[in-house]
């Protein structure tokens, strides 16, 4: 291995260490308390080394959120591909989204800015809107199958996204006084009522 390759590998290792340390700190202390100094201390480098790899804390948060959206996208695709008809796909996609949110709470909070300022540079990738896109596709197919007006698919799917995201947000911000079973039941009933309304 040449000197250039060795330096490149070392640079990638430090970058990975920074991202891993930031995520680990967020799990124990929360995203809002994260700082470049804490990350530097965690990887046992000086703060300038961290700044050599990332412009600021927001750039680190953006990279981590990208990974979160990628992981979510994979879970949604698995759920979608496990079913053939749009009704079952819709239920499975919503269920996968719900499970991802609570299995990966730190990712979800960062990805959607819950309890903190929204992060990101305004750069969009396909995975950012995969949940909304899949909801729209299923909604469109169900409406089409039922012989209703397909031009309503966008509005209807956005309403469902808002309801699902709202339930998750409420539960994450007030999880002490709301039973998780009640919220999941509400979610399932909402999806079933939504399908019947199309």
UniProtKB/TrEMBL annotation:
Keywords carried by this UniProt record: DNA-binding, Transcription, Transcription regulation
Keyword Nucleus: no
GO molecular function, one term: DNA binding
Domain HTH tetR-type: 12-72
Pfam family, one: TetR_N
DNA-binding region listed in the record: 35-54
Taxonomy, superkingdom: Bacteria
Matching SUPFAM superfamilies: Homeodomain-like, Tetracyclin repressor-like, C-terminal domain
PANTHER family the UniProt entry points to: ACREF/ENVCD OPERON REPRESSOR-RELATED (PTHR43479), HTH TETR-TYPE DOMAIN-CONTAINING PROTEIN (PTHR43479:SF20)
Protein name: TetR/AcrR family transcriptional regulator
Organism: Chryseobacterium cheonjiense
